[in-house]
Amino acid sequence: MGEGVEWAVHCCLTLGWLGDDQPVSTARLAAGYELPPAYLNKQLQALVRAGILTSTAGARGGFRLGRPLDKITLLDVVTAIEGPDEAFQCTEIRQRGSGAESPARSFVAPCAVSTAMRKAELAYRRALAAQTLAEVKVAAERHVPRLEDSVRRWYGRG
Amino acid sequence: MGEGVEWAVHCCLTLGWLGDDQPVSTARLAAGYELPPAYLNKQLQALVRAGILTSTAGARGGFRLGRPLDKITLLDVVTAIEGPDEAFQCTEIRQRGSGAESPARSFVAPCAVSTAMRKAELAYRRALAAQTLAEVKVAAERHVPRLEDSVRRWYGRG
To answer: How far is B90 from chain A (nearest CA, A)?
Structure first.
């Protein structure tokens, strides 16, 4: 997993703290976390494609949340940034070499190795889907006094 | 995740079917799944380092299971092949840019984003740890008639 997920979740939280009154540019979001703007912009565009953010063009354009943080799960963000593919990719090696002698009907059911790995990935995805960004925001605020005020001030939203 | 996990789990199952009477060479295991021997050997050496396999040098040398399949979990194999690091790596971007104004004590507790992601990875690891290779072997045998006989015959173990 690349840094994209970390960046994307933090940017969504920031947009949550700023509210949706005016869009925030890539340059500002990048400066807000000292990230490379061009690469961050790729992640933000992926969030737009997934409907997590909306973007406005123009000199005063930028990004807003596409829906409230309690309607965005960690799975939404991970899928938007990393893609929908599972980490474990079965290449059906069971059918090769020594397996080539087994009758074709042996391979109708999914490979037991793949099934076992997918079971674990399903547990991962379920745990991601069970957590909304609203909950992550509350957890972040618990440890940093006046975090929302501090972010709003930094972005000039007083 | 690379193909290494798929290869490693299948090779362990094969060694389980063959029993531990004589070691199996990299060349034979590679041929048994039509895999590139040099790259497969790297995965097998990683399993040896993790204690999942043992290796014997020499012309008649090769690999045996280091312990029974019911004492090897999917997590053991994934950790041996992919390493112990979690997929999500927190780089503490919360402390940069807008975060730099917060007092140092704000960052004593782990980042909420990291905590949330780790919760999901823990669910993944728990699900991997809950499945032994003995269970995967039983599931594989359920769909392929006389799988053990077929593998033993291919490896000349009649």
So the answer is: 7
| 3-class DSSP string for A63-118 | EEECCCHHHCEHHHHHHHHHCCCCCCCCCCHHHCHHHHHCCHHHHCCCCHHHHHHH
Say whether the ipTM exceeds 0.85.
yes
Alpha carbons within 13 angstroms on the beta-carbon side of residue A129 total 7
Tens digit of each residue's pLDDT (9 = 90 or more) over B132-142: 999 999 999 99
- Domain boundaries of chain B, sorted by first residue: 3-154
Q: Which residues in A lie closer than 8 A to residue B98 (C-beta atoms)?
A: 14, 32-33, 150-151, 154-155
Interface membership of A149 toward B (CB under 8 Å): no
Please tell me which of the candidates B32, B88, B89 has its beta carbon nearest to residue A98.
Answer: B32
Q: B112-127 pLDDT, tens per residue? A: 999 999 999 999 999 9
The answer to whether B27 faces chain A, any CB pair under 8 Å, is: no
In the CATH scheme, what is the code of domain B3-154?
Answer: 1.10.10.10
Q: Classify A97 in phi/psi space as left (phi over 0), alpha (psi -120 to 50) or beta.
A: left
